[in-house]
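Exercise: predict the fold of this chain.
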Amino acid sequence: MTASASKAIDVAVMMGSKSDLETIRPAVKAAEGLGLAVEVRVLSAHRTPDEAAAFVADAVRRGVKAFICGAGGAAHLAGAVAARTTRPVIGVPINAGSLGGFDALLATVQMPPGMPVATVAVGGAENAGLLAAQIAAVADPELGARLERERAARRKKVLESDEEVRASASSGGGSPGTR
C-alpha cells in the first residue's frame, strides 16, 4: 500500500488513459480549489478492470464522497465504477475521436436502471469538480459556504462584464449584436 492509499480522500478522479489528463485537470483544480482532498488515477475499465475495482473499494474505505470518471470512445469507466459503489459517480465524456465526444456522451448517459451516473457536457470537467463539491457539501456546511462564495465571485464577474459592455455601448460604441 502506498502512502496515498492510506490518506482520506473526498473526490477520486479516474481517467481511462493519460491522454485524458488535460481534459480532466479542471475537475481537479475546481475540487482542490474548494479545499477537497483529491486523488487522480489512470485506470481503464477494459485494460485494468481488477485494479480499477480495487481502487474503487479502497477509495470508499478511505471516505470518498464522489467519483469523477473521464473517458472517451466507448466511455465505460463511469459505468464500471458505478457498478462497484453506491457513492455518486460523475461522468466526463471526452472528445477522443471522429464523433467529437458524442459517442462518449451517449455511452456515459445511457446507464441501465440501478446504475446511475451523473453526466456533464463533453469536456465539462470543471462542472464535474463543482458537482462533486456540491455533493460533499451536503454534509459539510463550511464547504457549502465556500461554494456560495465561489458562486458569488462568478456572479460578480458577469455583472462587471455587463457594466463594461453597457458603458461601452452608451459611449458611442453601439450595442453589441445590433449591427
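Check your answer against the key: The chain has two domains: 4-139, 141-174.
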